[in-house]
Specification:
The protein is mostly beta strands. The N and C termini lie far apart (188 Å).
């Protein structure tokens, strides 16, 4: 400052700086409004294959460029072909289909978003992903143990030892028998799943699909007496031993023990049914002992018990001629004794025969010529069963 006058401040350089700063801010905001966001990264889908049979994986969907043509060779333990696809847009639905070789085989997928049959669905994916398919010849049997008790379950043919190994794969159509072994103090209180109709310690299955079985072990109930009543004529035996009707028809068995009763009808009788069994299969009665129990075995008379031992014709001193027939009768019966020649009845007589060794006779009319003829005996027992016995006889001349 000089001469007492205040010097003037020049603000023009500051104004220029402010204008430049404002212009930079506006330009930056405009760029942010119009510039595109960075594109999300594409992802890769990889197919893993394994198993004891060969198979193929193919297909894709949802407009994805992913195309699969992947083959699994179980002998070489190697895959070939297009088993991965990259540059898949994020969120794209990809569907790949597994085709196992052979009848009764199947494909088991893992790490898919959804599995429907042999199809693996991968959706809403934005990062690399690997899915695995196992080609298996056969169907899977899975056993689950339940209940307050303990025990093991094994299979024949081998494969399941549950315990620890409670699942295995079996060929299509293969018959598998599961056997439960309860721990001390327990018994098999129930079978479930594919074995829901079974009882006792075993269950037999045919592997025509994937099957699940539940075995429930419960505390053993108190021991009980098993009594068998036989209606009709037949025999009943048990496994384990104890019942042998008609000698011993009652025995004591342990609580929870499975007893198999087997029937055997006597000659001329047929088995009809069991009453009081836990289950019946192939005419065998299964009883799971839980308390005092009674079982009835019903047999039906299906035939006349009779045998023709001999037939003879003779002439008595007074000149009368007679037919004699010897019978062995297992039961009483009624009927007729006839002499027949060329289809015509020459003589007939009603008979009633008791059980035992019996002889029936028939007088030959005096006008019947001698020669070859047939004796016919018709018998009917109390149950309505009929029996016809015949034999050739030589009639003495007149």
């Amino acid at each position: 400052m000089t001469g007492g006058n205040a010097a003037r401040y020049d603000a023009r350089p500051v104004h220029r700086k402010l204008r430049f700063a404002l212009a930079a801010i506006v330009a930056s905001v405009a760029f942010c409004l119009v510039a595109p966001s960075p594109a999300a990264a594409a992802w890769t889908l990889t197919i893993g294959t394994q198993g004891n049979i060969s198979g193929d994986v193919s297909g894709a969907s949802g407009g994805t460029p992913a195309t699969f043509s992947c083959h699994w060779d179980p002998i070489l333990q190697a895959q070939s072909g297009a088993c991965a696809a990259s540059a898949i847009p994020p969120g794209t639905l990809v569907i790949v289909t597994a085709t196992p070789s052979g009848i009764g085989s199947k494909a088991v997928w893992s790490n898919c978003t959804t599995v429907l049959g042999n199809d693996c669905y991968v959706e809403n994916q934005s990062t690399d992903r690997t899915v695995t398919v196992t080609f298996v010849n056969g169907f899977t049997l899975t056993v689950t143990k339940a209940g307050p008790g303990t025990g093991t379950v094994t299979s024949a043919p081998p494969g399941i030892a549950c315990g620890s190994d409670c699942s295995d794969t079996y060929n299509a159509g293969q018959v598998v028998t599961l056997t439960a072994a309860p721990s001390a103090g327990f018994f098999v209180s129930a079978w479930g799943g594919a074995c829901a109709t079974s009882s006792g310690l075993t269950c037999t299955l045919t592997m025509n699909s994937d099957l699940s079985v539940t075995v429930t072990f419960g505390p053993s109930p108190p021991s009980g007496n098993l009594h068998v009543t036989v209606q009709g004529r037949g025999a009943v035996s048990s496994d384990p031993p104890g019942i042998s009707c008609g000698t011993i028809c009652s025995a004591q068995f342990g609580g929870g023990q499975t007893v198999i009763l087997t029937e055997r009808p006597l000659r001329g009788w047929g088995f009809v049914r069991w009453d009081g069994c836990t289950s019946v299969q192939n005419d065998e009665c299964t009883v799971v002992i839980g308390s005092a129990q009674s079982v009835i075995a019903v047999f039906k008379d299906v035939a006349v018990l009779a045998e023709l031992r001999y037939v003879s014709a003779s002439e008595r001193p007074n000149g009368d001629r007679h037919i004699s027939a010897g019978l062995v009768m297992g039961e009483a019966a009624t009927g007729r004794l006839q002499l027949v020649r060329n289809g015509a009845v020459l003589a007939s007589k009603a008979i009633s025969v008791r059980a035992g060794i019996r002889t029936v006779t028939l007088k030959i009319p005096s006008d019947i010529a001698g020669g070859r003829a047939r004796v016919r005996i018709t018998l009917t027992d109390d149950a309505g069963n009929a029996l016809v016995l015949t034999a050739i006889v030589i009639v003495p001349p007149r």
